[in-house]
Design a protein that fits this description.
Elements: H1 10-13, H2 18-27, E1 31-32, H3 41-51, H4 58-77, E2 82-86, H5 92-98, E3 106-111, H6 114-127, E4 136-137, E5 157-161, H7 171-185, E6 190-196, H8 201-207, H9 214-230, E7 239-246, E8 251-258, E9 262-266, E10 269-273, E11 278-285, H10 289-299, E12 301-308, E13 314-321
Parallel strand pairs: 1-11, 2-3, 2-5, 3-4, 5-6
Antiparallel strand pairs: 6-13, 7-8, 8-11, 9-10, 12-13
Helix pairs in contact: 3-9, 7-10
Bound molecules: N,N-dimethyl-L-histidine.
N,N-dimethyl-L-histidine is lined by residues 50, 58, 163-165, 167-168, 208, 215, 218, 282, 284.
């Protein structure tokens, strides 16, 4: 492989398109569309707005923990690591690690959005001119290999998976992701993993049902995206965002609910929705530390350190390859 050449995400660029996922997801029961399709340009902007909401404590709490604990994380990791970020987005939290880690051998941000990667890498190169940045455009849940970096091929790797994005994977997917991360990071690898903790359901409910309606707009943008990209004719007024905590499953469940019987044309096909019928769009699993261990251990990691905030809302975990 050519050093540093961004890997192409074959799955996203072939069969697994938005149109195919929508048509398949609305043709089966229960209806469901994979959460990754929430993040087109509008969806990503709405998610950035969610992160600023007073009710959405996750982002600011994780940043506070990372800011306070980055020197400790850097001491655990030691000098000369390759830093591998799974789903890097705008790499805002990464800067907290980069500012503390010693002699980073290379930073490898992995993201499905090539535009995001390019813009973020440009900004990081300006702010960290001595840092080798090797962006990889790929689906991080399904990455076969990391780029070969001639200057630092022997460097130990430190993975970074912040934001409680692990919560958007179902338990099987989360285990598969962690197993693959363990394989990619190697026998001397470690992973910094941010995860939202289980807590008062009222607080969880508010985080996914904000009073300004931004989370509802984020959900319903999926229908607007179908109108934009698939020639669909959804009337957004006819649907509602629904999110609630399921304590037995330990997850927030998010759906789009049809408010009346209606028929919608999508990519030349007609779909009927009953009044009250739901389309599942997202899970957001919440992890207590026992849940985290139950996932980490079979994936080949041991959790050696966990940092939380005083309210125990969010956890940042240091997992070491076993
Ligand atoms: C990206 N992810 C961690 C968010 C979450 O909290 O599960 C996605 C989200 N969906 C609605 N609000 C936030």
């Amino acid at each position: 492989m050519v050093p540093g050449l961004p890997l192409k995400n074959t799955r996203a660029s072939t069969g697994d398109t938005f149109e195919a996922a929508v048509l398949a997801g609305l043709s089966r029961r229960p209806r469901a569309i994979p959460a990754k399709f929430l993040y087109d340009a509008q969806g990503s902007a709405l998610f950035d707005a969610i992160c600023e909401l007073p009710e959405y404590y996750l982002t600011r709490t994780e940043i506070t923990i990372l800011r306070a604990r980055a020197p400790e994380i850097a001491a655990l990791a030691g000098p000369g690591r390759q830093l591998i970020e799974f789903g890097s987005g705008s790499s805002v939290k990464t800067r907290l690690l980069l500012d503390s880690l010693e002699a980073v051998a290379a930073y490898v941000p992995i993201d499905i959005s090539g535009e995001h990667l390019e813009a973020t890498s440009r900004r990081l190169r300006a702010d960290y001119p001595a840092l080798a940045i090797v962006p990889v455009c790929a689906d991080y849940t399904d990455l076969p290999m990391l780029p070969w970096l001639p200057g630092s091929s022997g460097a130990a790797k430190l993975g970074f998976f912040p934001g409680s994005t692990i919560g958007n994977l179902d338990p099987d997917e989360a285990l598969a992701f962690l197993r693959n991360a363990r394989r990619l990071l190697g026998p001397d690898g470690a992973l910094v993993l941010g995860a939202d903790l289980k807590k008062d359901p009222g607080m969880l409910h508010a985080a996914y049902n904000d009073s300004a309606g931004v989370t509802a707009a984020f959900s319903l943008n999926l229908l607007a995206r179908m109108n934009r990209e698939l020639g669909a004719n959804f009337d957004l007024e006819g649907f509602a965002h629904e999110a609630f905590y399921n304590p037995a499953a330990g997850r927030i469940e998010i759906y789009i609910r049809s408010l009346q019987p209606q028929s919608v044309r999508i990519a030349g096909q007609r779909f009927f929705f009953d009044a009250g019928e739901r389309v599942h769009t997202e899970y957001s699993y919440k992890y207590d530390l026992a849940d985290m261990d139950a996932l980490a251990v079979p994936a080949g990691f041991v959790r050696t350190h966990t940092w939380t905030d005083p309210g125990r809302l969010f956890s940042v975990n240091y997992l070491v390859a076993t």
